Amino acid sequence: MYVYFIKGTFLRLYYPCQASENPQLPDWVPCREYFNGLADFMKMNRALSERIFNYLFGSCKIPAAWNASFKPDGKYPVIIFSHGLGAFRTLYSAICVELASQGFIVAAVEHRDESASATFYFREHAEPGTKKHPSCDIAKPLSDNLEEVWMYYRPLKPGENEFPLRNKQVKQRADECIRALDILFDINSGKSVENVLQCDFDLSTMENSMDLCRIAIMGHSFGGATVIECLCKDVKFKCGVALDTWMFPLDEEIFPGVKQPIFFINSEKFQWIGNIIRMKKLDSAIFPRKMITIKGTVHQSFPDFTFLTGNWIGRLMKLKGEIDPHIALDLSNKATLAFLQRHLNMDIDFNQWDALIDGKDDNLIPGTNITIPQSSI
């Protein structure tokens, strides 16, 4: 995990690691400020919702070893992951852990464009030693004269036009993903990378461990829009996987500039005609574009929330669809791996799931479940 100052980069890094006995498991939600951010985003009372969220999720751990020893095994392809509106870097661990376990280095970025429910950075404090950091045990700064500054989700102002805000945010998000990739390039080349957080992990063990000819960008919802913006901005991204993408923030003028393969994986309940039409505007006779829809899924079938609530609360809060969330995410992950093998030219066995890319499964719909009027195409 790396935090710089406000212009820096904040990410959680998932990587193949050495097996260890009794590993430390990181908290799913790192500190209570994130619960406050979720409350703001959901327009709930902070004090009440913090108790509810703490009861539901406070003890949840991510099934991955914290600061485990890196497992050197040739060169690993790289994925940058972008979260959705109101989310933050830890909420897609089921996807990121699976990809890392399959031999990818995955950097889950936490965006500072005021689209995350909460995030923070450090600034220098005038009086050294006066600022404590009790809230985030695993995110303490190296220096006592640094203080946390929290940044919460920015709601739309009354009467505000939404597009200029979202368009500005998606451009900043893409820049943050590219900056995260630049940091991975530095780590891979053995350069010293400044981390203002206390960290026991030795970054030098990752030198020459990344296959920087095989880089993908992936994201959910607003993160899906970020995928498309990134592909347009940086050709180092060889392909993109866009999960239930919210197309609204994007300038359609950039679409012809996207030359890389894109895989749209959609939920059944979130999409609508206008959004799908915008996806279809990226169709190309030259560059591969694929789309599938997972039956019985909702928009929140991709973040971890779908696993952490019972059926009643999950359905009530639209965190669960009608399909078993394990089946849904397994289909999404396997289809993603098959697509990445195909377009990153990997010599591995993910092509066993190639049929999923074309929607060939009882729980998949090839393309979309949305009927688009012929006149709209």
UniProtKB/TrEMBL annotation:
Pfam families: PAF-AH_p_II. It catalyses: a 1-O-alkyl-2-acetyl-sn-glycero-3-phosphocholine + H2O = a 1-O-alkyl-sn-glycero-3-phosphocholine + acetate + H(+). Its EC number is 3.1.1.47. It is an enzyme of class 3 (hydrolase). Keywords: Hydrolase, Lipid degradation, Lipid metabolism. GO terms for molecular function: 1-alkyl-2-acetylglycerophosphocholine esterase activity. GO terms for biological process: lipid catabolic process. The active site is at 221 (nucleophile), 244 (charge relay system), 299 (charge relay system). This is Platelet-activating factor acetylhydrolase.
